[in-house]
Amino acid sequence: MTDFWNIIGSNPAQSGDDVRSALDRVSGRLDGLDATDLVKFSEELREALYGMDRRQLAEIPVALAVGLELLQTSDHFLYSRCACILAGRDAYNAALRSTSEFTCFVRPFFQAAEGLLYLCPSVYEKKVGSKMRVVGGFPIESMSNAQGWAE
Q1: pLDDT attached to residue 143
Q2: Residue 18: inside a domain, yes or no?
Q3: Residue 23 domain-assigned?
C-alpha cells in the first residue's frame, strides 16, 4: 500500500540542488513500490496537482534577479506546483490556505521540479517493461480545475 505523502517526504526548498536531491529521495522510495502502488502514486500526484490548479496561485508573478516580474506560463505554473508538492504535505496545505506560502515556489530554479512528473512512469517502466497507463483521473494542465479558476 502506498502513502503518497510519506513517499514525497518533507524536503527543503531553498535551491535547485534541494529540488534535485528531493527528486532522488522520492525516486528511491518509488523503487520500493510494486506496479499497482506506482499507478496509485501517479494518480495521487495528479490529484494533488489538480488541487493546486487555482487562479490566485497562477497569478503570482515570477520575480527575476534583475527586478523584473513576469507572469507564470502554464508550464511554469505546473512545475511550481510540482515544487510545492515536493516540499511536502505541510508546504502543500499551507499554500492552499494562503497564496503567500506559494510565492517561493515560483522562483525560476524550482522549474527543475518538473522531474516529479516523470519519476513514477520511469520507475514503472523499469519494473514492468512497459509504459504506465493512467486511465481517467485528474487533469494536471493549468486551468483544468474549473472551481479553482472560478474564484
Answers
A1: 92
A2: yes
A3: yes
